[in-house]
């Protein structure tokens, strides 16, 4: 099923999307996730160029061409020429749901087939709701004169309707486990966000949710991913695991990988996949954005 010339179990550090010429990739180690710093260091960073914070997080060796992404469209922007036969994935760069569909597009090597259109959700163009996606959320996919939404549906849709390596193994047992894990994503996110919103210590509910993921990652112990090979389940979870690692470290002083070797390995290995790392945003910006959205000081 996976047509690539690397071992079926583990991903190549190069995805199909990334086999051209070298440029900087972006894969923080667990050490770079910790954003909290002394006042003096914070001041130093504040007076330096904004790129400094991104550079701090970059530890991976150069590996692939970084796609040049378009600026987000705002209320002042004209719509693209809608329904002209172009396939468009509407995203917001900081949105974990949009990130799922974006990773799927990248992993399948569809950069030339599916155009990224970024929307500024804080200053949303009115045509997005009126002409593109009445739900007025991202992600959405314009394809074959139709617009579809819901990130997990889109990941499956992209997998089924476009070429590129399959995101689901053939093994029925793994497929069934995939459905169970996909059905659990919202509950996992809810359990993890609950502790971030609370002033108390990390709750038992959050710990149990993390332990459940740790156990799930150990089910097929032929590889560090949920189903052995990289799949749509990894795509469903990784944008949120990325954020929870940042938020828990900085807001709760809690390392989600401590005592969870499978999760630690998952994070290490997924950060070798360009299709994912190319969708990552500056951890500092993600943290600030979420604190603001959740009203956390
Ligand atoms: N269930 C949806 C959730 C999408 C979603 O909530 N996206 C957020 C951005 S992260 C959004 O568009 N929010 C805009 C709004 O709610 O007005 C999915 O999985 O695609």
From TrEMBL:
A molecular function (GO) term: glutathione transferase activity
Q: Which InterPro entries match?
A: Glutathione-S-Trfase_C_sf (IPR036282), Glutathione_S-Trfase (IPR040079), Glutathione_S-Trfase_N (IPR004045), GSTL1/2/3 (IPR044629), Thioredoxin-like_sf (IPR036249)
Query: Where in this chain does the record put each GST N-terminal domain?
Result: 85-166
Q: Name one Pfam family in it.
A: GST_N_3
Annotated transmembrane regions = none
Family (UniProt): Belongs to the GST superfamily. HSP26 family.
Q: What PANTHER family does the record point to?
A: GLUTATHIONE S-TRANSFERASE L1, PROTEIN IN2-1 HOMOLOG B
**What name does this protein carry?**
GST N-terminal domain-containing protein
Q: Which gene name belongs to this protein? A: LOC101783765
């Amino acid at each position: 099923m996976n047509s690539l010339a690397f071992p079926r179990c583990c991903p190549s550090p190069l995805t199909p999307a990334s086999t051209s010429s070298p440029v900087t990739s972006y894969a923080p180690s667990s050490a770079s996730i910790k954003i909290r710093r002394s006042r003096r260091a914070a001041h130093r960073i504040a007076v330096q160029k904004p790129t400094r914070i991104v550079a701090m997080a970059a530890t991976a060796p150069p590996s692939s061409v970084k796609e040049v992404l378009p600026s987000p469209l705002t209320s002042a922007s004209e719509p693209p020429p809608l329904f002209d036969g172009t396939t468009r994935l509407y995203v917001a760069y900081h949105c974990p749901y949009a990130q799922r569909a974006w990773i799927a597009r990248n992993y399948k090597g569809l950069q030339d087939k599916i155009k990224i259109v970024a929307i500024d959700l804080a200053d949303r163009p009115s045509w997005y709701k009126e002409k593109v996606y009445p739900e007025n959320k991202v992600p959405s996919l314009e394809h074959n004169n139709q617009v579809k939404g819901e990130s997990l549906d889109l990941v499956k849709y992209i997998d089924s309707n476009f070429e590129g390596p399959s995101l689901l193994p053939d093994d029925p047992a793994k497929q069934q486990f995939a459905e169970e894990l996909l059905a659990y994503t919202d509950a996992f996110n809810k359990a993890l966000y609950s502790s971030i919103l609370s002033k108390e210590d990390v709750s038992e509910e959050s710990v149990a949710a993390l332990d459940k993921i740790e156990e799930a990652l150990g089910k097929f112990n032929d590889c560090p991913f949920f189903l052995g090979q990289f799949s749509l389940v990894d795509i469903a979870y990784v944008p949120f695991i990325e954020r929870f690692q940042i938020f828990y470290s900085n807001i709760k002083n809690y390392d989600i990988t401590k005592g969870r070797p499978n999760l630690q390995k998952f994070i290490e290995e997924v950060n070798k996949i360009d299709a994912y790392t190319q969708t990552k945003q500056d951890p500092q910006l993600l943290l600030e954005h979420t604190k603001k959205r959740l009203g956390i000081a």
